[in-house]
Specification:
Chains A, B: This is GntR family transcriptional regulator. Chains A, B: Residues 17-85 form the HTH gntR-type domain. Chains A, B: It comes from Cohnella silvisoli. 2 copies of one chain form a homodimer. Chain A has 2 domains: 3-82, Winged helix-like DNA-binding domain superfamily/Winged helix DNA-binding domain (Arc Repressor Mutant, subunit A), CATH 1.10.10; 86-125. Chain A is of the alpha+beta class. Chain A has helices spanning 19-32, 45-52, 56-68, 86-110, 115-125, and strands spanning 3-6, 9-12, 41-42, 72-75, 79-82. The first copy, chain A, binds a DNA duplex (30 and 30 nucleotides) through helix 2 and helix 3.
Chain lengths: 130, 130
DNA sequence: TAAGTGCATTATATCACTTAATACACTTAA
DNA sequence: TTAAGTGTATTAAGTGATATAATGCACTTA
């Protein structure tokens, strides 16, 4: 539950998920929400590892997945930079949204809620998130 | 992707999740959707294990979690039975729904979608599940 | 009594995740 | 040229969750 500030991003790691996945999610979220400027540099692997008190290899794994999604570009000897391709960011955003929706609706259906019931529940429980 | 019929339920196991979790989810779903009658008996641990071609201990783990949630009652020497307490089933259903909603909204928020955007996307992608 | 229940125990194996320690190629600035 | 900082690759080791295997026990029913 410890919060760490680094490179204009806030990080909170716990043991509920793989560390590399949490780093990946939180950097991707910062990009998607526009909290970090396109084209800007993110902390180096070693710097991030030290700040989060985790192994550089674990950070590497997260960074490599970001690059596979073309959300970052890495320049050998220089560092890792957020893409300047805003269309790519939008693509990732909507792809993630579609997947989240499918998962959500599938789970709700497995508990026997139809579209109408889901709509009603969304109004009831939808008010109080972060 | 192999589908197995047993005890009035359809099972499909894969390697994407722990086996005990998949068994747990699919039995719980059958109860929640009313596909299996309250008070009825579900297959024995050994029977289920043989049908799904997995270890009895793995089935046990799923069954124990069902009993912890009071969705089943086990009678030593007799077997495992679905609860007759319909209110309990409803409680589990709505608790699960609330959790799914919170997770969904949290994920969408992390990608920068507000309530209005979520509503719009639900209409767009909401049609084609199952 | 025999067969079928849930349940407990012990051992083993596998896999994902994480850390650790090094090393190398590259870039930049002193 | 040098030194420091980049990403990256490699090898080794440890840990925990998951799953299987083999056995046995207490209980219930036919």
């Amino acid at each position: 539950m410890e919060e760490v500030q680094i490179g204009g991003m806030r990080f909170t790691l716990d043991l509920s998920q793989p560390l590399y996945e949490q780093v990946l999610d939180q950097v991707r979220s910062s990009i998607a929400k526009g909290e970090i400027a396109l084209g800007s540099k993110i902390p180096s692997v070693r710097e991030m590892a030290q700040a989060l008190k985790i192994n550089p290899n674990t950070v590497m794994r997260a960074y490599q997945e970001l690059e596979r999604d073309q959300l970052t570009e890495t320049r050998r000897g220089q560092g890792t930079y957020i893409t300047t391709d805003s269309a790519r960011v939008e693509q990732i955003r909507y792809r993630a949204a579609e997947q989240a929706i499918q998962e959500f609706l599938g789970k709700m259906a497995s508990f026997g809620f139809d579209a109408q019931a889901i709509e009603k529940l969304l109004r009831k429980y939808g008010g109080e998130s972060t």
